[in-house]
Each structure stands twice: as C-alpha cells, then as structure tokens.
Specification:
alpha/beta, 20% strand, globular
C-alpha cells in the first residue's frame, strides 16, 4: 500500500505549516491548501486518504467542503480543527461523518490518534 496522502486545509498559514511539518515528520505525504476551493481544484482529489480542515474559513467552511466532497463522490475521512469549538458545530461535523473534531491549539497526540483512526477505519475506501 502506498503512503497515505493527507490534505490540510486552513486559512491560517502557521497552522498549515505546523500541521504539514508534523505529518511529514511522521512519514505522510502532505498537501496544503489555504481554502476549501483550492482543495476542490486539486488534480489529486482521488488520491486523498484523509482531509484535515478548519471549520471556519472565508468563502467555504469545512462543513461545506465535506458536503461538496460527498456530493462529488469522494469518501475520504475528515478531521475538523477549530479555534471556536462549540457543541452544535461539533455535533454537525460528527453527524456529517467526521472522524474527529479538535479545538485549536490541539495536542499532537490527539491529532495523530484521530488520523490513525481515520486511516484504519477507512483505508483505501476513502478514495473514489
């Protein structure tokens, strides 16, 4: 099996960089995006093993990104991260099928545990 491709979507450059560095240090192939729309334009959508995305972004939210990905037939697991956690948004994310919902600043081990769960639960089924 090939190395999982993890897509990180966050409008905060420092969060993107830190998450990318962490995941690369763990051996993952990582692509980063400043917006949901940028991810949707990626030529590698069908290769994505997991999406880690911010909930609140300017034009399209992380929840809207998840809905759009599902509409397009992509089943990659999602992990949401947010600086503004609340139970309603958390419940919406989990109801929509998210594997994890983490508040910023999140712990390294918490993110890695969510990612491991996502990759184990979905394996290659996340690809179309």
């Amino acid at each position: 099996m090939s190395t999982p491709l993890i897509s990180v979507v966050d409008d905060d450059a420092s969060v993107r960089a830190a998450t990318e560095n962490l995941l690369k240090s763990r051996g993952y192939v990582v692509q980063i995006f400043a917006s949901a729309e940028a991810l949707l334009r990626s030529p590698r959508l069908n290769e994505i093993s997991c999406v880690i995305t911010d909930v609140q972004m300017a034009a399209m939210s992380g929840l809207e990104l998840l809905a759009e990905m599902r509409t397009r037939g992509y089943q990659a697991p999602f992990i949401f991260i947010t600086a503004f956690p609340n139970e309603r948004v958390r419940a919406s994310a989990l109801d929509a099928g998210a594997i994890g919902f983490l508040a910023k600043p999140f712990g390294v081990q918490d993110l890695l545990k969510c990612l491991d769960s996502a990759l184990q639960a979905y394996g290659d089924r996340g690809r179309i």
